[in-house]
Design goal:
- It is globular, with a radius of gyration of 23 Å.
- The chain has 7 helices and 22 strands.
- The chain has 3 domains: 211 residues, 3-Layer(aba) Sandwich (Rossmann fold); 84 residues, Translation factors (Elongation Factor Tu (Ef-tu), domain 3); 104 residues, Translation factors (Elongation Factor Tu (Ef-tu), domain 3), CATH 2.40.30.
- The protein is α+β, with helices and mostly antiparallel strands.
- β11 and β12 form a beta hairpin.
């Protein structure tokens, strides 16, 4: 299978505290030679001060000072690296229960989730919680990394038992692709290089799995959606009459000559050209950023959406969503918030909390209606003007939104339209 060398794969890590997430990422970066010399020197110095004999690999992702001192991850740490086969963005998310919101943030754009399980402890509540959030966020691929195999004598039986434990509860989740890997992040077994300690494992190591993972079909190429971010009017020689609508393709494919409709106005036209800094293109798809010009002069502004005539999103003012509450302060009943959906911003109100989800048991709590930090709930929301939406499971970009508190300008929640 041919892999595009410029193709970007985003993946997130999740697991309980001390399952070795940061160590695994450090091992990936270290063994794939993706660390700058000054970074390596800083981490070696910190490792020596802490009394470690070798390099403490976890420090490569623990960017905050508190994290380095406590040895825990409390924020989403992003790391970038490239191999000859692919580019990667890693979101290292916290394991603590009180940082559920950080996992939602880190995982929202991921193609894959690495869920770490300590081989000594097997599947625990936190494992189920993170698998549930990965399922809720419709992450297409899950790799269950059964870590610390060196501490259980590389036992195939323990590995198989953990697979059975995971599959027992994951059958209830909506996940398309789950793979399992026995690893030792500390020693590097099956991370970048194949382990010599686990001859019974016939699969590929983690890096090869990530490099060859097929993600092209994860992008929705059917529903053409182009949220307009700004209108380009250069007003200079050669572009006096130019009017381009700039934005990023959310999904689908656009070509010059396509019949399109502009929402919410409903005006129709044809695509005249699709332009970039490097010239015009014959075809564009997600997540390319371009400027589209139309045959007709239509009043279009930021927040409008260009779509195909025969395939349109729903224009709704009231809808249900799964919401993760981020803020320290609980949600105020029927308070007004600013909703940001693609490039569209307007006022919105949480009409009702239908139920909250206990993310340990997946049970619905229909009596408890107060949304507190890290709570996940199904809510009903109403906006002042219609939004052009798709269901989140069909389109992660046009099916998601954030809520902003007008008084503090803080992002208080993220939602997935159902």
């Amino acid at each position: 299978m041919q892999i595009d060398k410029n193709q970007l794969l985003r993946f997130t890590t999740a697991g309980s505290v001390d399952d070795g997430k940061s160590t695994l990422i450090g091992r990936l970066l270290y063994d794939s030679k993706a660390i700058f010399e000054d970074q390596l020197e800083a981490v070696e110095n910190t490792s020596r001060k802490k009394g470690h004999e070798g390099v403490d690999l976890a420090l490569f992702t623990d960017g905050l000072r508190d994290e380095r001192e406590q040895g825990i991850t409390i924020d989403v740490a992003y790391r970038y690296f490239t191999t000859p086969k692919r580019k990667f963005i890693i979101a290292d998310t916290p394991g603590h229960i009180q940082y559920t919101r950080n996992m939602v943030t880190g995982a929202s754009t991921a193609n894959a989730a690495l869920i770490l399980v300590d081989a000594r402890h097997g599947v625990i509540e936190q494992t189920k919680r993170h698998a549930f959030i990965a399922s809720l966020l419709q992450i297409p691929h899950i790799i269950v990394c059964i870590n610390k195999m060196d501490l259980v004598d590389y036992s195939e039986k323990i590995y198989e038992n953990i697979i059975n434990q995971f599959e027992e509860f994951s059958s209830k989740l909506y996940v398309k692709d789950i793979q399992f890997l026995p690893i030792s992040a500390l020693d590097g077994d099956n991370v970048v290089n194949r382990s010599t300690n686990m001859d019974w494992y016939k699969g590929a190591p983690l890096l090869y799995t990530l490099e060859t993972m097929h993600i092209s079909s994860d992008i929705n190429k059917i529903d053409a959606r182009f949220p307009v971010q700004t209108v380009l009017r250069p007003q200079r020689e050669g572009f006096i009459d130019y009017r381009g609508y700039a934005g990023r393709v959310a999904s689908g494919i656009f070509r010059p000559g396509d019949d399109v409709v502009v929402l919410p106005s409903g005006f129709t036209s044809k695509i005249k050209s699709i332009d970039t800094m490097d010239g015009s293109l014959d075809e564009v798809f997600a997540p390319m950023s371009v400027a589209i010009t139309l045959e007709d002069d239509i009043d279009i502004s930021r927040g409008d959406m260009i779509v195909k005539e025969n395939n349109q999103p729903k224009a709704v003012q009231e809808f249900d969503a799964m919401l993760c509450w981020f803020n320290n302060d609980p949600a105020r009943p029927r308070a007004k918030y600013t909703i940001v959906h693609t490039s569209n911003e307007q006022k919105a109100m949480i009409k009702e909390v239908v139920y909250k989800i206990d993310i340990n048991t997946y049970a619905r709590e229909e009596e408890e209606k107060v949304l507190k930090m890290n709570d996940i709930a199904r809510i009903s929301i109403r906006t002042t003007r219609p939004l052009m939406v798709d269901e989140y499971r069909d389109n992660r970009l046009t099916g998601s939104f954030v809520l902003i508190d007008d008084a503090t300008h803080e992002t208080v929640a993220a939602g997935m339209i159902v």
